[in-house]
Design a protein that fits this description.
Layout lengths: L7 H13 L2 H8 L3 H15 L4 E4 L2 E4 L1 H24 L7 E7 L1 H18 L3 E7 L13 E6 L6 E7 L2 E5 L2 H6 L12 E5 L5 H8 L9 E5 L2 H9 L4 E5 H10 L11 E2 L2 E7 L6 H16 L1
Parallel strand pairs: 3-4, 3-5, 8-9, 8-10
Antiparallel strand pairs: 1-2, 5-12, 6-12, 7-10, 7-11
Helix pairs in contact: 1-2, 1-3, 1-4, 2-3, 5-9
Length: about 300
């Protein structure tokens, strides 16, 4: 037998507004606008042919008939919610994966790729903290710590996932303005340094067999990501880690004037505390890092 019923949306709006005594509060509970609640109530009133609310000051008060109507349909909504919870598929509780990574690595490599991981695994929430502190100095426990290596730390398992080398990089505009044909041409340029990595340029210049080269100027930054941004903005020439500037090279934001020499560098590694069991989510994230690292 066909049931003659009003719109479920109209009934939901009426039940929430009547129970809460406010169209505004009902709108917040139902995640709709206050105007949408008012419209649904008007539709129900038109369907019933009766007024349901009286407006007093800034509140709404049920009419006598509406109060009796609400007393009957209110429990039905509760029964409906309970039945849905009983027979519906339980929603998975998102698993939060905590990651601590070096700041420059997070900014220039991890974050640009993280959307791909989230798209493939929307049920995993990722919390990323950045720190350049040594592994043993971290106070908070993390599921995954990303640092250089390979190093051995008591109580941690380690796996490398991304190798890199270092060599000079600069902006295309700077290269066009002052071409770099050989490493000797660097004497006309500003060299960009990072205070925490003071040996990068001296070691590379030594490997290039020009250890005594004196550049036109020197600019020093306290963070490596600022040094790389300075190169992108044409301030000077930086020592670029191949893994962290690969996207900039591909997009044409940076160029690599010399094919070599290439300065060896430490790999990026995952460190997993052995007292924090590596569950399937941790294994999944580490496998994804290794897969992305192989593409670099």
């Amino acid at each position: 037998m066909k049931r003659d019923l009003p719109s479920l949306n109209a009934l939901r709006a009426f039940e929430a507004a009547g129970r809460l005594g406010s169209f505004k509060d009902a709108a917040a509970e139902l995640h709709v606008t206050q105007g949408a609640v008012s419209q649904q109530v008007r539709l129900l009133e038109a369907w019933l042919g009766a007024s349901l609310f009286e407006r007093k000051n800034r509140r709404v008060v049920l009419t006598g008939a509406a109060e009796a109507y609400l007393a009957e349909i209110g429990p039905l909504f509760e029964q409906l919610a309970q039945a849905t919870a009983r027979y519906g598929v339980p929603k998975a509780v998102p698993r939060t994966l905590s990651v601590n990574a070096l700041a420059t690595f997070a900014l220039r490599w991890l974050v640009p790729r993280l959307a791909q991981f989230r798209a493939a695994h929307p049920d995993i929430d990722v919390k990323v903290d950045t720190s350049n502190e040594p592994l043993e100095a971290l106070k908070e426990g993390y599921d995954v710590v990303i640092r250089g290596g390979p190093d051995t730390f008591y109580g941690y398992s380690m796996r490398p996932f991304l190798a890199e080398e270092r060599l000079p990089v600069c902006s295309p505009a700077l290269m066009e303005r002052m071409p770099l044909r050989t490493p000797d041409d660097l004497h006309r340029h500003t060299l960009l340094h990072t205070s925490s990595l003071p040996r990068l340029w001296p070691d590379w210049l030594t490997k290039a067999k020009i250890p005594a080269l004196r550049p036109a100027a020197v600019v020093t930054f306290d963070h490596f990501y600022l040094t790389l941004q300075g190169a992108i903005d044409g301030i000077g020439v930086a020592m670029g880690p191949t893994a962290l500037v690969a996207d900039d090279l591909a997009a044409g934001r940076l160029v690599m004037p010399f094919a070599g020499p290439r300065l060896p560098s430490r790999s990026y590694c995952t460190y997993i505390a052995e007292n924090r069991p590596a569950d399937e989510v941790v294994k999944l994230f580490c496998a994804w890092l290794e897969s992305e690292g192989q593409r670099a």
